[in-house]
Amino acid sequence: MRVRVMVSLAVVASVALVACDPEEPKEYTGAESAGASSAAAAQFAPLVRLHEKESLMPMDAERFAGRSVLRFDHDGLCRAEGPVADPVDPRRLGLRASPYTHRSVDPRSPSSTPVTCPGHTGEEHATTKVGGGFYLDPPKEVRTGEGTGAPVYWEYHKHKSDPGRTAYVYWFFYAYNKLTAGNRHEGDWERVAVQLRDGKPEAVTFARHGGSPCSVKWPDLKLDGGHPTVYSALGSHGSYPTDGYHRVAVTVDRTSDGGAEWRTWDHARPVDRESWWGYAGWWGAQEHVDGFNGPIGPYPHRQLAGIFTEKPCGGAHKPPAEPSGPQPAPKTKEGAIERYEEYLHALGREDIDTVCEVAGPAAKQAEDQGFGPCRLTFAVVFHMISPTQKKALQTATVDPQRVVVQSPDKIEMPVESVRASVTFSENELGDSTLEYLKGEWYITD
Q1: Within 10 Å of residue 324's Cβ, how many Cβ atoms?
Q2: Res. 102: pLDDT tops 60
Q3: Which of 34, 68, 339, 425 has a C-alpha 20 to 30 A away from that of 332?
Q4: Residues 361, 443: contact at Cβ < 8 Å?
Q5: Per-residue pLDDT tens for 352-362?
Q6: Mean pLDDT of 112-126
Q7: Count of CB atoms situated within 10 Å of the CB of 53
Q8: Which strand (E) or helix (H) includes residue 374?
Q9: Is 368 exposed, middle or buried (0-12, 13-18, 19+ CB in 10 A)?
Q10: Which parts of 104-161 are beta strand (E)?
Q11: What is the DSSP letter of 221?
């Protein structure tokens, strides 16, 4: 994995969080069952066109939940705590059965399991409580999803002041989101809405990444048998009305016209009849770093902004074609610093895949000298780093003035070059040497 443009993790993470344009007043609406029609929901359901290079496919949310374990997040504390449920009964996530519960911690009450965690004597939370602290933690093998046979979930909204205006909101679920090194998380809920006036389609609303909702008039959409075409962006699954390149803060979403077709009307289901309906927790692990946290999905009484917006969506951009094949990382001091910062952030998040990818050569050298394989070695290292240090590493940067350039393809990162909210000693972090090998920077010592 390569980091192209990263001033800091916080900047790149703003891809999904910072609007590109001024906010406009929005109407917030919640789902209602009165007046909804399964036939109409299927009639207006979109044709989702996936990117031709997409490998992270849609998935049935119930199967995602059933293959996950349920955990409770104590604001980053108690990371060694066991799961609340394993396996998960999707019915107990929501309103179909007695929901799962868990107590928050009380810092004033000690506990020995784990030793660093306060006692569980605080308020008891249920999985149906918004912000209750629960999250689903799936195995990595589900990230590829299932394919275009997955369901789409719909709900019905009414305009607050105009009784002739209604909308069907369509929720798409993917098991994994991967846009850039700064926006990667388990669970990915996306949505569009078909606006109706007196029961006839008028426009489609797109909940854009990095901006407020926008809409496209029905006659301006590409239609397939009366179904609007929605383009799903590569990796991020953001929804757009056209193929091409779409600006998202400091990066772009990419859509294409040659990928797989997801005929959502074949598998359109009312979301309030799902076994997990009522679950208000997170659909993915919480890393406590913006862009890496699993999202919240649809739940009862959730208010959505801008469903009936009339703000027009902009068109796609057409930059020059990208070079084919993997491109080399910059063979510069700046490129090495970006790569090392990527490693530090991954170390703080306990992202073993990225850590072992960046530090692969050094880990292999250590393994040859009698140490364990990378994944086993760094699993131990993660336990040696305190929660405070991990949090500091997640936003750490490198001071270029303290970096030592030994040669054009060999750069030393002294521990003193790491700028973080806590200070690391030689024994805690150590110096690292990065070398430029086969078009990328790697830690070799």
Answers
A1: 6
A2: yes
A3: 425
A4: yes
A5: 989 999 999 98
A6: 81
A7: 11
A8: helix 374-384
A9: exposed
A10: 124-126, 134-137, 152-158
A11: S
CA 192 – CA 373 distance, rounded (Å): 45
Tally the residues of the chain.
Answer: 445
CB 32 within 8 A of CB 157: yes
Query: The tokens 């074609």 sit on which residue?
Result: 321
Answer whether 284's CB lies under 8 Å from 61's CB.
no
* C-alpha–C-alpha distance, residues 255 and 257, integer Å: 7
Compute the distance between CA of residue 69 and CA of residue 137 in angstroms, rounded to an integer.
5
H-helix or E-strand spanning residue 275: none
CB atoms within 10 A of CB 418: 23
CA separation for the pair 418, 396 (Å, rounded): 7
By DSSP bridging, strand 152-158 and strand 223-224 are unpaired
Joined tokens for residue 36: 């909804």
Give just the sign of the alpha carbon dihedral 285, 287, 291, 295: positive
**CA–CA dist 118, 108 (Å, integer):** 7
Rounded CA gap, 342 and 395, in Å?
A: 10
Q: How far apart are CA 106 and CA 77, in angstroms?
A: 11
Which H or E element spans position 205? strand 200-206
Query: Exposure of 35 by Cβ count < 10 A (0-12 exposed, 13-18 middle, 19+ buried)?
Result: exposed
Burial class (CB within 10 angstroms; exposed 0-12, middle 13-18, buried 19+) of 335: buried
- Asked if pLDDT for residue 142 goes beyond 90, the answer is yes
- pLDDT for residue 297 is more than 60: yes
Residue type, 384: M
Q: Each residue of 68-90: pLDDT tens digit?
A: 999 999 887 777 788 999 999 99
Return the ∠ at Cα 28 (arms to 22 and 34), rounded to 5°.
150
Q: How confident is the model over 253-268, as pLDDT tens digits?
A: 999 998 999 999 999 9
The whole-angstrom separation of Cα 38 and Cα 269 is 8
Please give the distance of CA 121 from its chain centroid, rounded to a whole number.
Answer: 32
Q: What is the mean pLDDT of the chain?
A: 88
Query: Which residue bears the tokens 């002294």?
Result: 414
* Dist. CA 351–CA 364, nearest whole Å: 18
Residue 14 has pLDDT above 50, yes or no: no
Q: What is d(CA 376, CA 32) in angstroms, rounded to the nearest whole number?
A: 50
Three-state SS at 43: helix
The candidate with the shortest Cα–Cα distance to 18, out of 7, 26, 10, 6, is 10
Q: Tokens 């604001």 belong to which residue?
A: 75
User: CA-to-CA distance for 244 and 306, rounded, in angstroms?
Assistant: 24
Of 226-230, 358-362, 427-431, the range with the lowest mean pLDDT is 427-431
Amino acid present at 434: L
